[in-house]
Design a protein that fits this description.
2,3-Dihydroxybiphenyl 1,2-Dioxygenase, domain 1, eight-stranded mixed beta sheet
């Protein structure tokens, strides 16, 4: 497996899932990806760390009963050298801080924010915990992109906040690659009215690699999930969009050989 040893500031470091159906959802991701979960107990709201073959891949937390109506959703976190300073930068750039920076035991400092277009994301300043330790293999993180109706505003926000560069991808869809030292780290996709219903808000989409996208999709209905978009071909691999039993949306991709 491609091991991941570091997450430089401004690059994706972790995904976690807030879910209204934790038990069904754990069984779902175990069936699809082979994940094993460790419950951190009531002190951390029963936060779970998911591992694939012993490697860190993602987190899961039951939705809080103090926030009824909160939907199930994945959050993409970016690495930070100073979460407190980044909270100020987010506000300066037109975003909002939803969860103020706080220390999580000796693991690190986390915060949750929304960009000026409304997409929710997180920042993680590591102490003992540095994020996912494997990528681009079955059941592991592989890509992330924001889907928004104002890609220009999102581009200005994230390049400034995360100190990234960008490159527009040729094609019919407006898409920008966010880059660090020439390497692609995330994408920005422009929603249009023809393909995206007005009810869909701006959001970050996590992608997990799979060894066989068609075989993975076949597991979804029996595991309690839904296939939102069946497999389709792209220059970057075969992609499908799925919904887990709690209603959280994510993508899987079979990368090119």
């Amino acid at each position: 497996m491609p091991a991941v040893h570091t997450h430089p500031a401004g690059t994706p470091t972790w995904y976690d899932l807030t879910t209204t159906a934790p038990e069904d959802t754990k069984a779902f991701y175990t069936a699809l990806f082979g994940w094993a979960f460790e419950d951190y107990g009531p002190a951390l709201g029963h936060y779970h760390r998911a591992r694939k073959d012993g490697q860190e891949v993602a987190g899961l937390v039951p939705a809080s009963p103090d926030m009824p109506g909160m939907p199930s959703a994945w959050t993409v976190y970016f690495s930070s050298d100073d979460a407190q300073a980044d909270a100020g930068h987010i506000r300066e750039r037109g975003g909002s801080v939803m969860v103020e920076p706080m220390q999580v035991m000796e693991l690190g400092h986390m915060m949750v924010a929304a960009d000026p277009t409304g997409a929710v994301f997180g920042m993680w300043q590591p102490l003992d915990f540095h994020g996912f330790t494997v990528a681009d293999e079955h059941g592991a993180p592989t890509w992330q992109e924001i889907v928004t109706r104002d890609s220009g505003q999102a581009l200005d926000f994230y390049t400034g906040l995360l100190n990234l560069q960008s490159e527009q991808v040729p094609g019919d869809v407006t898409y920008h690659m966010l880059q660090r030292s020439g390497a692609n780290v995330a994408g920005i996709m422009q929603m249009d009215d023809a393909h995206w219903p007005a009810s869909i808000p701006a959001h970050w989409m996590p992608y997990f690699a799979v060894s066989d996208v068609h075989a993975t999709v076949q597991l979804v209905p029996a595991s309690g999930g839904t296939v939102s978009v069946p497999p389709f071909e792209t220059p970057y691999g075969t992609i499908a969009v799925l919904i887990d039993p709690g209603g959280a949306v994510f993508s899987v991709v079979q990368l090119p050989a």
